[in-house]
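Posting for a labmate who doesn't have an account.
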Amino acid sequence: MTAHAELARYRKTPPPTPSTPAASTTLTTSTTSAAHIDRPRPGDGPLLWRMARDSGTLDLNSSYSYLLWCRDFAGTSAVARDRSGQAVGFVSGYLRPDSPGTLLVWQVAVDESVRGLGVAGALLDGLSARVAADHGLSFLEATVSPGNLASERLFASYAARHRATLTREVLFAAEEFPDDGHAPEVLHRIGPLPF
């Protein structure tokens, strides 16, 4: 599904009510498993924390922060679920307060069982379409540590799919972090986006 078709689908979907599930996107992978993408719920927090921990590349936040994230930032985050409803991937993000048309992607993680199947890209596409429909979206930003090739490919692919420019610059140098050994964080800024 193209970004424009996905955006149109979200525009036609009424906001969820307490008696109906959140709008979701169906994701079919190249295996026999199918998943859908929707908003995280606080009950997803522990599993998202474990996925972040097991990723081997993400800075691990407290388990409490994942519970809060699923409650307070569900509108700017997304979860991929397998057929049983179990979370198999997530992207957490927020709209920058000083730039409300910019979605900052905080973390992206995919369970090892579905890596390489396009789940992370589908999460970014589905979340972008939803945020664009709900709030408007001009730019997507993420920080990536040098050498994280999977994330670099993910955001380069996203920019190419959306025919948007990708720029990179160091946002925080290594010496700006209080803990020794922290790599610099390179800002990947993608846009303007065609939503």
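Reply:
Got it, the structure tokens are right above this. The two ends are 14 Å apart (CA to CA).
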